[in-house]
Design a protein that fits this description.
The complex is a heterodimer of chains A (309) and B (179). Chain A is built from 11 helices and 9 strands. Chain A has helices at residues 17-33, 59-70, 91-99, 115-122, 138-152, 170-181, 210-216, 238-245, 249-253, 275-278, 285-304, and strands at residues 48-53, 74-79, 105-110, 126-132, 159-163, 185-189, 205-207, 219-222, 260-262. Chain A has a 5-stranded parallel beta sheet, sandwiched between helices. A 4-stranded parallel beta sheet of chain A has the order 2-1-3-4, with helices on both faces. The longest helix of chain A is centred in the last third of the chain and has 20 residues, at 285-304. Chain A starts with 16 loop residues before the first helix and ends in a 5-residue tail after the last helix. Chain B is built from 4 helices and 8 strands, in the order E-H-E-H-E-E-H-E-E-E-H-E. In chain B, the strands form 2 sheets. Chain B has a 5-stranded parallel beta sheet. A 3-stranded antiparallel beta sheet of chain B has the order 1-8-7. The chains are: A alpha/beta (309), B alpha/beta (179). The interface between A and B is medium-sized, with 24 and 22 residues.
């Protein structure tokens, strides 16, 4: 089998198209594994993985931990809230202390963009970026593309619109890189204040009218409004945002085709999408969560195969 | 590189018929038996035997599956070679069934060891048997022996046994290859 061209998963930016295909093919096998009566394989039983979460997470942390355990790896968890980081320890010191306990791989979420890249240059371990600030969230983009591939057969040639808070979204950036790499057409749609100024330089279409965007697309990936990252007001009110950029059943029914709805979670029900849309057959939000485990298993397995004894 | 024909198409055909008959002797109508081909190469032998049992020996409702052992191997990260995973297709429960593992060549026994672990993910079989076309005896690393064997071969370790199938390589032939 060919192997990944990288030793760390720091961002989609560093991957090649064939890496994505290899991850997806491997994930297909793991998806079969996690639907068995016994959902576990012993591949990584001599590997220890540290999950370092310097920022809150529910889904990603659970998904990584489950993926690691289904591969039989030993797992240690770390949350910044309850640690010596509060006492002023630096990132490298924290990680090196953990690594001196013989850890082979690090899954890290950090509020600062580039934290994963920085770490990969200073410590000896394979790093998986589980989200670094507003920069990248590669495994989310991979599972999003994997879910599109599962639903529509292929990613190449599909029209995908990413709606909402593009400015603060690492999911948006990683998705743009991943979708472009696989030959999809990408559009971003949101209030002008939440669209980065030079976003079109990435080769994506820009649209501020949601109806036009939905009419164009095969898939709409609805992002959450990240209130926690907003230090100023980017739109007058949540209600006004919903009126212009929220997807509801009437809007979907008024289109002349059926589009697929995605959401990376957590959903603000009634803000970016209404409950009837989130729970409809057009939404693949829960498939995304299930695929997340299989895709993360594939990433961990492929990176672990590069750790020589 | 030199190669020698161990079994030609006629010999392979005779052996397949014998193996099919031996299976029928022990499993009657196969109502409680499932055949599992070990991926990647055992699949062809398993398909061939299953086809022979259904068409020529009129066995009905034969259950056939394929098991991939990649994630159960004991040499992960222990060599330069990265093993490619294959599809596992087992659309039935093996709980309380008689399972027959089918592989083309039995060499060190490590693949079968992995298969014994892998099959547990699909239930607890009543018993497991092993059928192999070529048994390279004297080269075992583990205490594993076949219940049904096509041909026993005393090959030295540098030699390789390669089984070719009509549906894949265009001929039913077993070669002994010396690099």
């Amino acid at each position: 089998m060919s192997e990944l061209s990288v030793n760390h998963l720091l961002g989609i930016k560093y991957l090649q198209e064939k890496d994505i295909q290899l991850i997806f093919e491997t994930a297909d096998h793991f998806k079969e594994v996690i639907n068995r009566p016994i959902k576990k394989v012993p591949s990584l039983r001599d590997i220890t993985i540290a999950n370092l979460f310097f920022e809150n997470s529910t889904r990603t942390k659970l998904s990584f931990e489950l993926a690691e355990k289904r591969l039989s790896a030993d797992v240690i968890n770390f949350s910044a809230g309850q640690s010596s980081v509060k006492k002023g320890e630096t990132l490298i010191d924290t990680v090196n202390n953990i690594l001196s306990m013989k850890v082979d791989m690090v899954v890290m979420r950090h509020p600062n963009p580039g934290a994963g890249v920085f770490l990969s240059k200073h410590v000896k371990a394979n790093i998986i970026n589980a989200g670094d600030g507003a920069h990248e969230h590669p495994t989310q983009a991979l599972l999003d593309s994997y879910s599109i591939r599962e639903r529509l057969g292929d990613v190449a040639g599909k029209n995908v619109v990413i709606v909402g808070d593009i400015l603060h979204s690492r999911v948006a950036l990683s998705n743009i890189f991943a979708l472009k790499l696989q030959g999809a057409n990408v559009m971003v749609c949101g209030p002008k204040t939440l669209l980065p100024k030079y976003i079109d330089k990435l080769g994506v279409k820009v649209e501020t009218n949601l109806r036009k965007a939905l009419q164009w697309c095969d898939v709409a990936n609805m992002l959450r409004v990240q209130n926690e990252r907003m230090d100023i007001s980017y739109f007058p009110s949540t209600r006004e945002y919903t009126q212009q950029f929220g997807v509801n059943k009437e809007l979907l029914d008024s289109l002349d085709k059926e589009i697929t709805i995605m959401h990376p979670g957590p959903i603000n029900r009634g803000v970016e999408i209404t409950s009837d849309v989130a729970d409809s057959k057009q939404a693949i939000i829960l498939d995304q969560v299930q695929n997340g485990v299989a895709v993360r298993m594939a990433v961990i397995y492929l990176l672990a195969s590069k750790i020589k004894q | 590189m030199s190669q020698k024909v161990l079994l030609n198409a006629t010999a392979v055909n005779i052996i397949l018929h014998r193996l099919a008959c031996q299976l029928i002797e022990n499993h009657n109508d196969f109502s409680n038996t499932v055949l599992i081909g070990i991926q990647p190469r055992g699949k062809y032998l398993a398909n061939r035997l299953a086809n022979m049992l259904t068409t020529e020996y009129k066995i009905k409702n034969l259950q056939l599956g394929h098991l991939d052992i990649t994630f159960y191997r004991d040499d992960f990260r222990r060599g330069d070679k990265i093993h490619e995973a294959n599809t596992t297709e087992i659309n039935f429960v093996v709980e309380d069934k008689k399972v027959v593992f089918i592989d083309d060549v039995l060499y060190t026994g490590r693949s079968i060891r992995a298969a014994l672990t892998a099959i547990q993910s699909f239930g607890r079989p009543n018993e497991i048997e092993l059928l192999t076309l070529i048994d390279r005896r004297f080269s075992r690393h583990l205490p594993i022996q076949p219940n049904y064997r096509g041909r026993q071969v005393d090959a030295i370790n540098e030699e390789k046994v390669k089984v070719n199938w009509k549906e894949n390589e265009g001929e039913d032939t077993v070669y002994l290859i010396n690099d």
